[in-house]
Amino acid sequence: MWVVRQKDEEFHEDDVYGAYKELFSMKIHHGGVFSGSLGRQYLNGKVTFVDLVDPMSCQSMSYHGTYMMYYHFLIPNSDLDFGLRAFGCDQDVLNLLQYVSQCKIIKFYVEHGSTKLKTYFVSPEPKRLPDEPSTDDVGSSRCRKRLCLEWDYKEDEKNKVVEGLEDVATNEIGNDVDALEDVATNEIGNDVDGLEHFASHDIDKDALDDFDPFFGQTYSAEKEGNEGAEGERSEGAEGERSEGDEGDTEDERSEGDDSDYIGDEEDIDYMAEVDMTSFNENVDWEAEWVGNEGDKEEVEYEAENPMDFDDNESDSSGSLESSRKKELRKLKKMHEKKEDIVGAAFNFYVGQIFGTKEEIKKMITMYSLHACRDIRLIKNDKTRLRAICKGQNPVFKEVGGSNKEVGGSKKKAKKASASGEHCPWVLHVSTCNNESTWTVKTYVGGHTCLQSRKLKLCTANVLSEQIMEDITPNPDIPLKTLHEQIQKRFQISVSSQQVFRAKKMASKRLRGDYEQQYLLLRDYLVELQRSNPGTTVKLEMEIEPNPHTTTRQFKRVYICLGDLKQGFKALGRDLLGLDGCFMKGMYPGQVLTAVGVDPNHGTYPLAYAIVEAETTNSWSWFLELLGDDLDLEANSNFTFISDRQKGIIPAIAKVFPSAEHRFCYRHILENMKLKWKGKAYNDLLWRCAAATTVPQFHAEMEQVRKFNVDAYNWLKQIPPHHWSRSHFTGRAKCDVLLNNMCEVFNKQLVDGRDKPIITALEYIREYLMRRLVLVQKVIDKSQGPLTPTIAKMLGKIKEEASQLVVTWNGSTEYQVNGAWGDQCCVNLEAKFCACRRWELTGIPCKHAVAAIWFSAANGGTVALPENWVHPHYHLQTWKMMYQFKINPTNGRLLWPKSDYPIKIMPPKHHKQIGRPKKSRRKTAEELSQPLVKGSKLLKIGKAMTCRICHKQGHNARTCKGKGTPS
């Protein structure tokens, strides 16, 4: 007479228990396993309640999908270590009856497939239940079979099995092992999986006396090792749970976790999910519990997984619900304080399935790292993986005691101490039937050792994966800071060399590998052309003597984005700055850049390339590709400005012989300071370079000659049309003397020049994409006919023009007078001024502005000075130039694959002498800058002159030749 409570069904104890006092309720823990260490617990199980159970009618308890089960009941007010008793025969039922009168809820625990407890291997004396017919040993075994086994085949097949087992029990077959196999397989067929498993056990002939025909194994528990028991349970229980899931219907699975307990579809109503709320409210706890209050609460709410309880099942009265939630929180805290809490977090359990061995090794490594346990892999082959804990158990010695072993040799003492030296933690994983599935066969959790600070599995590769979150936002994080963060986070000891290698590996994952990126360079260039139509890409490789080889070494790459090309053509200014800068990564090289000037006097990068070095050949190759993109002929009157690099001068003369080539004033000054230093030389050179007319230039050169003839002769060797405005043509409408546009652009590339080639190219592209957006924001805020910078320049020119006096000749020419010597003729119709500033810049000079105002004041039909500015500086031109945007690109996984069969290899690497320099080489002017400390001028870096011998390099205090001046 069993009753399984339904949800929301009231349970009245007085009505039932009053009628028959021996009825009780069963709290069944099923679907899990017992832990093997002291402080036993039932892991990964479920809970089901069965009410109104008559102990005299306990005939069958089944579990769908499991052919062998072991039942245990727990003595009230006891723990799982010493209070478990077997529940498999008549004597066990009689033992249970003595507790029913005291406690109306008895806990039952189910083991599936095999048992590790010794309670089942203690043979009780045979007793008969009241009002039951007498049975022999065969009947007793049959009763145990009904309590532990469920067969899923037909009734007639069941009878065959029972008859076969009776024959075995009555020793009709004898000690013949082959006969046992015949009984298990005879006339049953493939459906009787349980007997096949029964017959497949290895049975020792010497142990047949202890053989139980019902269990299919010996009673000797000592022969069952931990590994074998765990492996048997994993193979049986895992498969049985999967079969049970397949047998359940969709409604049963959605009903609750206890649906797996249903053994047959006809018993769905009989074994349905129950609501224990009303039962808990009506049970008389004072009559049931003998122990203290804490024991009562523990037994009431004990469950391995607190989440199996449903808080919604409590009554709305609030008293029991609040107590229930309180106990759940208490259980959660107890669960978190378990000794092997990290093992529970990583969810190691017997029967666990993995796809690959690498997945298992990674999980073991993370467990070792977070638990601070020295886990070692002692087996690591194609089919097995076994891990043990090498942690040392603590050894406590008595005070004043002797370290010598008594009654044994030193060798025996060493063996005895070594037997319990290491921690018992073991994990064994292997493949199933040579398949690709890895299953945990043995797991002994719980550590008895102390935590370790040095871990074998904590390698630089493992640390590199853990510090990715620190490297990603801050790739240049100091090594010492990273070292401290690792030790603080994981509480382990690592060396600075490990941290260095880990950071290097993490940076490699973040930025990419130097060598591997050359293999993907073609795919990146194809993606770049796909995302940015009109982009010019040129890839050149080293010449290979053998044309049949499938590999080539990288030499050069040239990129000119299509949007930048269209924007530069929209401006129409024939001026570009050329410069190069060093690559600082593993493979040396040079980054060549071509940068223009936009209408607001800002930089506008056009093209860039990575070449082997700044040579005449590489610059000629770069200029030829640049000319093809800009549709420049060999006789084009284009204007270039450079730093006088020895390879670029002949390259421009070769590719564009008619072009105007300007030299950067700053580089000329640096060369001059190698011999003549000082502010006086700087001022003289600047006045010569800034002179806009030829007579003014000669006058300034005469001042240089008077100051220093040697400097004058050195400067005269440089043709003035390369560095002085007086000899510039006005085709570019820009009078720049400095190559600052390239210097500013190269400065922005410092952080990208030490990265692999694709990462470096992407760094340049992303910078250009972001810069166009920032400039567009400024354009949207600007107003007026001119750009902001040109409007400010014109405002200053107007202030200077207000001080001039204009005289008109009655035609189109004006005479404008200023201070002594400042008198120029202006022709408004030809847009010409004698000072040549208007011609060079395209912006009216102060003389032209004064003439414009005078013409407008005297009835002339002249527009405002802003209308006389060249269209290069108009706001509308600026907008047209920046309307072309650079498109983003996809990641590496989405790049189209190039069908070119030749693989690109890294360029030839030439190791430089000494440590590579990352900082910029300082100029002579920077080195000669005085150092000031407070109100005094320091003499650090200055050459001291001795007042005795008048020699440099020492002073009078350290002079060795005192009294003998030279």
Automatic annotation (TrEMBL):
Region (Disordered): 214-263, 298-328, 907-929
InterPro entries in the record: MULE_transposase_dom, Transposase_mutator, Znf_PMZ, Znf_SWIM
Alphabetized UniProt keyword annotations: DNA recombination, DNA-binding, Metal-binding, Transposition, Zinc, Zinc-finger
Composition skew (Basic and acidic residues), residue ranges: 221-244
Cross-referenced SMART domains: ZnF_PMZ
Biased composition (Basic residues): 907-921
Segments forming domain SWIM-type: 814-856
Pfam families: MULE, SWIM
Compositionally biased region (Acidic residues): 245-263, 298-314
GO MF term (any one): zinc ion binding
Source superkingdom: Eukaryota
Any one GO biological process: DNA transposition
Protein name as annotated: SWIM-type domain-containing protein
Organism: Centaurea solstitialis (yellow star-thistle)
Taxonomic lineage of the native organism: Eukaryota, Viridiplantae, Streptophyta, Embryophyta, Tracheophyta
